[in-house]
Amino acid sequence: MIANVLCGAVLFSSVIALPSLTSRQGLCDYPQEGYQCQTDITHFWGQYSPYYAVPSDIPSDVPATCNITFVQLLSRHGSRDPTASKTAQYNVTIAKIKSKVPASAYTGQYAFLNTYNYTLGADDLTLFGQQEMINSGVAFFERYSELAKSVTPFVRSSGEARVVESATNWTMGYHLSKLADVGADSDYPYTLVAIPEADGVNNTLNHDLCDLFEHNATYANVASNAQSKFAATFIPTIQARLNAALPGANFSNSDTINMMDLCPFNTIANPTGQLSAFCWLFSLDEWKNYDYYETLGKYYGYGAGNPLGPTQGVGFTNELIARLTNTAVVDHTSTNSTLDSNPATFPIGPWVKLYADFSHDNDMTGMFYAMGLFNSTPTLSTSSAMNVTATHGYSAAWTVPFASRAYFEKMQCAGESEELVRILINERVIPLDTVCGGDRLGRCPLSKFVGAMTFAKEGGHWDQCFA
Ligand SMILES: *[C@@H]1O[C@H](CO)[C@@H](O)[C@H](O)[C@H]1NC(C)=O
Ligand SMILES: *[C@@H]1O[C@H](CO)[C@@H](O)[C@H](O)[C@H]1NC(C)=O
Ligand SMILES: *[C@@H]1O[C@H](CO)[C@@H](O)[C@H](O)[C@H]1NC(C)=O
Ligand SMILES: *[C@@H]1O[C@H](CO)[C@@H](O)[C@H](O)[C@H]1NC(C)=O
Ligand SMILES: *[C@@H]1O[C@H](CO)[C@@H](O)[C@H](O)[C@H]1NC(C)=O
Ligand SMILES: *[C@@H]1O[C@H](CO)[C@@H](O)[C@H](O)[C@H]1NC(C)=O
Ligand SMILES: *[C@@H]1O[C@H](CO)[C@@H](O)[C@H](O)[C@H]1NC(C)=O
Ligand SMILES: *[C@@H]1O[C@H](CO)[C@@H](O)[C@H](O)[C@H]1NC(C)=O
Ligand SMILES: *[C@@H]1O[C@H](CO)[C@@H](O)[C@H](O)[C@H]1NC(C)=O
């Protein structure tokens, strides 16, 4: 791999062994529709769901009399192993079972535990996750082929290995589709700007700079408090059942949640994406509650439920405004003015029609809330699960599953003097009615959309980040 370091940001230009262009993995995952096995369970894992196309009240195709002129992709990395701290906890939970539960207890749905060993790694993309990202590149190219066939996307990534790898895998899928379509792609491998996730680095694709948000309990503990409150409504029943079935394990509250987490993580650790046996230990209602529990974590961590959550997404929103309007970035939060004033690391102009940025679930949540996309969702209750499938509903599984993708589109339409902006998150058109007076197809004129981004333009509550 040849990597050029340019002013602290790493520009990758690597030689890559290409996989064959597969359209699906196992029998479960497809480029456009995403993960489609046992959807009554797998679509209710919060941010641990693998990407799936979310049903859209508004048709998600490009309106017949319009041409797409610009797309900004914002993507989460693909499916990964548990984070290092979680993998250590899961290992302990399984060790309790192995050392304390008599073999005679491993019957029925628990029989698999007799031979199950904890072998998951930490932090890295799984093979399934890599293929998800290749599929995402394929899906993007297919959806926007009119533009994609003639231009090369400008790609940025937050610096953590799995995010950079996700970006690279996405470009592979895009490239293979382009080769299949037009027969040549001389720009490949594409330039990739990776912004480090180190302390003190201004990075719009990764939060870290806002001191009080990161370290003061007023902000940092809101999500875990909300989750604990809701967990108390549904976890004790499951805990009692597991403890009765596996005597001696003495599962705590968090062991019980770990047992649920082991379902998604063992599923995406399997290259075919076949459901893990852990998944069958819980009922459909329990998965709905789990989904809501994970949703609360994002909403009270980085969304409207946290006083400084949406502020974390301000820097990226201001970059998006710059790209949409072909004007210089105006921001005093997490943007890096050195990077954003350099055309090599932040090109802007009408000739840059496709942008692709790669980040994390938490950061993307902050960005969606900085833009006010879910401002008309009622405050999420911590005492009972609310209906997330309502028109303005919000859920983690719908917005930031693994390999999730938001498309910010501009389109030129017959009879419209101005370009229109439309936003899709995982194929669901976000109704912009309460954001900027969006029409029945979910679109606002560019000037109205940008005019509505007052929270970001004013810097959110960045002034409150520092005591
Ligand atoms: C789990 O580990 C045990 C002990 O090392 C081994 O006998 C068993 O085959 C392993 N199970 C699987 C599914 O690999
Ligand atoms: C689980 O913990 C045991 C004991 O500390 C350790 O030997 C093993 O490597 C761990 N396994 C994984 C997959 O982390
Ligand atoms: C994904 O990208 C990484 C980094 O370039 C590469 O090592 C890996 O083989 C790719 N995955 C697939 C399935 O091609
Ligand atoms: C901004 O980016 C430049 C160029 O990559 C880098 O040298 C500098 O350290 C960055 N500064 C901050 C505060 O992130
Ligand atoms: C934490 O933030 C709250 C609210 O801004 C503030 O009142 C409090 O003084 C802060 N605590 C510390 C230790 O900075
Ligand atoms: C079960 O775990 C709890 C802590 O979660 C502990 O207080 C209790 O003593 C344990 N019970 C047994 C029988 O080990
Ligand atoms: C990085 O962000 C800080 C905090 O907003 C800002 O004061 C500083 O000027 C930024 N640095 C660069 C290089 O943009
Ligand atoms: C949730 O909201 C949707 C849309 O308003 C509605 O169709 C559905 O019946 C609601 N579900 C429940 C369980 O209330
Ligand atoms: C869309 O593009 C086609 C082909 O370039 C062109 O003929 C048509 O006028 C465009 N429509 C609009 C509304 O710009």
Structure notes:
The active site is at residues 77, 361. Keywords: Disulfide bond, Glycoprotein, Hydrolase, Secreted, Signal. It holds the Pfam family His_Phos_2. This protein has helices at 39-42, 84-100, 127-143, 145-148, 161-182, 211-215, 217-220, 222-245, 253-268, 284-302, 314-325, 337-340, 361-370, 396-399, 433-436, 446-452, 454-457, and strands at residues 3-6, 9-12, 29-30, 34-35, 66-76, 154-158, 192-195, 354-359, 405-413, 420-425, 428-429, 444-445. With 467 residues, it is α+β, with helices and mostly antiparallel strands. The chain has one domain: Rossmann fold (3-Layer(aba) Sandwich), CATH 3.40.50.1240. Strand 6, helix 5 and strand 7 form a beta-alpha-beta unit.
Give a short synopsis of this structure.
By secondary structure, this protein is α+β, with helices and mostly antiparallel strands. The chain is 38% helix and 12% strand. The chain has one domain: Phosphoglycerate mutase-like (Rossmann fold, 3-Layer(aba) Sandwich), CATH 3.40.50.1240.
Secondary structure blueprint with pairings:
Layout: E1 3-6, E2 9-12, E3 29-30, E4 34-35, H1 39-42, E5 66-76, H2 84-100, H3 127-143, H4 145-148, E6 154-158, H5 161-182, E7 192-195, H6 211-215, H7 217-220, H8 222-245, H9 253-268, H10 284-302, H11 314-325, H12 337-340, E8 354-359, H13 361-370, H14 396-399, E9 405-413, E10 420-425, E11 428-429, H15 433-436, E12 444-445, H16 446-452, H17 454-457
Parallel strand pairs: 5-8, 6-7, 6-8
Antiparallel strand pairs: 1-2, 2-7, 3-4, 5-9, 9-10, 10-11, 10-12
Helix pairs in contact: 2-9, 3-5, 8-9, 8-10, 10-13
Subunit structure: Monomer.
Organism: Calocera cornea HHB12733
Signal peptide: 1-17
